[in-house]
Amino acid sequence: MRNPYQRPKSKAWISSLPEDILSHILSFVELREAVKTLVLSKRWKRVWTWIHCIYLNNKPYLRFFNRDLLSMKEENKRRPSFINFVNEILTGNNDRILSLTSFSLWYYFGSREDTVYEEIPSLVQWIIAAAAAVTSILKNFDFGIGVGGINMPPILFQCQNLVTLTVISFYSNMICVDVPETVCLSSPIFIMYTSSMKTH
């Protein structure tokens, strides 16, 4: 009799797991890496769209943190590629984030702080899109940025089930949290604001 706890011998045993478990596993990796699994098989094509937690981090695409792997020319290609990818996921006409319960965005500028004024509007739009699409179920929101000059949109305080809101500045820069006059929060909220050199 086969032991039910014994791992199958097939190399594709992970594909036999239930869809909710597969999507949960993918929620622990950066979103672009999760999306890459769609090429594994026909079944995996949509697994990444079922994740409830989105984690975005542009650090791997910056030469400042990967000098041995990236040239500045390569960074100049990857930076807009990352932005376009997130724009498609969060602001495109799709239902991929309607079941989102956790949203994490860690954004660095590295040595290219000249792009700050070009890219900050995109960051704000991502935050608004994530909060607006799922205001009734979003529970955790984490945001970290390497520059100042950004205002956290008030829509975050309209997420009725929001439990934790974490805002972190990596280099002691100022981040403004725009709290509206009317706050719609039915659950306790914990706000942690730090000015430290924190990396993810």
Automatic annotation (TrEMBL):
Residues 11-47 form the F-box domain. It holds the Pfam family F-box. Gene3D superfamilies: 1.20.1280.50. Signal peptide: none annotated. This is F-box domain-containing protein. It comes from Gossypium arboreum.
